[in-house]
Specification:
Helix content is about 60%, strand content about 10%. It is an alpha/beta fold. It is elongated and about 130 Å long.
Length: about 425
């Protein structure tokens, strides 16, 4: 703009001078002045183009080659941190009118009390595997899109949820459960899917899952039978899916580095028959022990289920920023410590009771296995005793045979001696 102003001023001066000189008939001087100003105009133009070009080059160098990716900090993800005293004050304020809830917080074991406190402080994340948190994150406001996307990634096929079904109607009732999250949904094609998260994997997982898929099939059968009446056909039946996430999987799953176990049913003849039950087990503890690089969306979701370490959360969100809205939903619990206290205390109370049952069952199983092993050893000892007795009998028989032979030899010697004396 400055150079343009100089050029315009020069042109104006030239015009004034030319007019004055022409009136005085100084044509030669006019021609020379005109030439000088034309040269100045050309010089100004070249200078302007050079400055513009340099400015353009500088501007390009100042701009990055691509838009700079935002790097999220823990505060961006979990919100601004607060002090431990502020967190304690918030807990006391939220439970001020509910002394029982505050006592539940005080009675939490130290590990879980610190987990809750550090989350409210904004220092650590929160495991979403508890039912209250899982539903809040996966079904925000009742919207199923996030759960659909999650299940589509896990099953590696499109999943479209029609509605979330109530647990009521199940014929299986367990006194105590290691299940800490449980969602049943119907698909648009009529299929039913049950998503479970177990804190501790059950013993006999195959038998239990078979019972649950059978129960889901019978629920579907009864519903269709009542709805369709006489027009019911077994062709109306749709597949049922049970997917079980285990934070601590039982021993059967510890003999492999694979962490997703899908049931595959087929017939040895290759005949194609549609069986309805589909079962998938996912060992989250195995996943955490064997997976180092989160390089797929499926691994990212499994990491999201279990991530609590601050560095791990920051790495996950910076690699997959789409999880930021999920953490926005999670951190709403920082302002609702009462809900978390209830969730933690209920889960721990259930787990304590079930852990006792589990330990008793495991102890009984170990005793039974030891009794069986002792019985086998007794059988082996008895067999050895029998073998020794048989050997003793064989030796005794041989001794008897030798004694008889010795007796026979003596008799023959005596007969021989008598024969010689007669001769």
């Amino acid at each position: 703009m400055f150079l343009k102003g100089i050029v315009l001023l020069s042109v104006t001066i030239l015009i004034v001078v030319v007019i004055v000189l022409r009136e005085k008939n100084n044509c030669l001087i006019v021609a020379n002045i005109t030439k000088i100003f034309l040269n100045l105009a050309v010089a100004y133009r070249n200078l302007f183009q050079e400055k513009t070009t340099q400015s353009s080059y500088l501007h390009k160098e100042d701009l990055p080659m691509a838009e700079t990716k935002k790097l999220y900090t823990l505060a961006d993800i979990l919100g601004e941190p607060i002090t431990e005293q502020e967190a304690q004050n918030l807990i006391r304020k939220e439970t001020n009118s509910d002394e029982q809830t505050f006592q539940n917080y005080v009675n939490l074991n130290e590990t879980y009390r610190n987990k809750l406190l550090h989350f409210i402080m904004g220092k650590n994340g929160l495991s979403i595997t508890y039912d209250t948190v899982f539903r809040h994150v996966m079904l925000p406001g009742g919207d199923t899109k996030r759960l659909e996307h999650f299940l589509s990634i896990i099953f590696d096929q499109p999943i479209h949820i029609k509605q979330i079904l109530p647990r009521e109607g199940s014929q299986i009732v367990e006194n105590g459960s290691f299940v800490i999250a449980d969602i049943i949904a119907s698909m648009e094609d009529g299929s039913i899917i049950n998503v479970e998260i177990q804190k501790i994997g059950y013993a006999f997982p195959g038998e239990r899952s078979s019972c649950y898929t059978a129960d889901m099939i019978m629920r579907q059968y009864n519903y269709l039978k009542n709805q369709n009446k006489k027009s019911f056909s077994y062709q109306d039946m749709r597949s049922v899916y049970l997917i079980v996430f285990m934070e601590h999987s039982p021993a059967q799953f510890h003999h492999t580095n694979k962490y997703i176990h899908r049931k595959i049913s087929c017939f040895d003849t290759g005949v194609q028959i549609n069986l309805l039950d589909n079962i998938t087990f996912i060992s989250l503890d195995t996943f955490r022990s064997v997976v180092q690089n989160i390089d797929t969306e499926q691994k990212a979701w499994l990491s999201f289920l279990t991530a609590g370490d601050p560095d791990e959360i920051v790495r996950l969100v910076n690699a997959y920023p789409e999880f930021l809205p999920c953490y926005r939903d999670i951190i709403s619990f920082r302002r609702r410590p009462k809900d978390l206290i209830t969730t933690f205390s209920d889960a721990l109370r259930e787990m304590d009771r079930n852990t006792e049952i589990y330990m008793v069952e495991q102890l009984a199983k170990e005793v039974q296995e030891k009794d069986h092993a002792l019985a086998e050893k007794d059988n082996v000892i008895a067999e050895k005793d029998n073998a020794i007795a048989e050997k003793d009998n064989a030796i005794a028989e041989k001794d008897n045979a030798i004694a008889e032979q010795a007796k026979l030899i003596e008799q023959l010697k005596k007969q021989l001696a008598e024969t010689r004396s007669t001769d």
